[in-house]
Amino acid sequence: MTLIAAIVDQEKNVHMIGDRLATNESGDIFTLAFAKVGILTTSHGQDKVIIGASGNVEMSIACTQLFTPLPLPEDKSDLALYQWSLKEMRPKLREMFVQSDLLKKDKDGEPELPGLILIAARGRILRFERKVVPLMIQRSYWAIGSGDDCCMGVMNFALRSLGNNLPTAVQCKEYLISSMRVVVELKTSVGPPFDYINTKGERETIEK
Q: Which CATH superfamily is domain 3-206 in?
C-alpha cells in the first residue's frame, strides 16, 4: 500500500517522494501521521542519505526513524558505494530488522522483509531486495511499491524530452509529484499527502 519513487538531477542530488496511505488488519485505508521517506545523517554527522521503504508501517518506521547509516566511503566511485551498501549497510540493516522482528520466513524458510527499500546517496539509487540484498540502479530514476511500473512509465515519458540530459532539481520535483498523481488516479491504495525529500536535506509535504 506504499509507493516510493526517486530521481537524480543534473547536480547528482537525488530526490525522493512517498505517499502516506496505509492499511490496517481489517483492510481499512487510513493516512499515516508520519512520512514513509526520511533524511538520515550518517553516524559521523557529515553525509546525508535518503531512504524510503515499501511494505508495512513498522518497516517504514524502522527505516526512517530508527536507522542511522554508517559513514559513506572516502572513495567516491560507484564500486566503493556499492561495496559500502553490501558490506556495511546490509549487515546493519539486517541487525535492525532482526531486533524489530521484521524479518519473516518465506515458503523456503528463508528470512525476508515485507517490502523493498530505496536508499540514495552521492547521486546513485540503491534498491534493497526482500532478502536485504542491495542492487545499484543503473537508471537515473526508480520506484518501488504499489503502482511502481506506472510511476516509472510517467517519469520515463517526462525524461524523453530531455534526451541524454538529466533533469534540473525543479523538474525532478515536478516529475515525482506528477507521477504520484497519475498513480493515484489508478490505485486507490496510493494517495496524498506526499512527502518530498532530497539529498541536500530539503523536505516538503504536498497535501494533494
A: Aminohydrolase, N-terminal nucleophile (Ntn) domain (3.60.20.10)
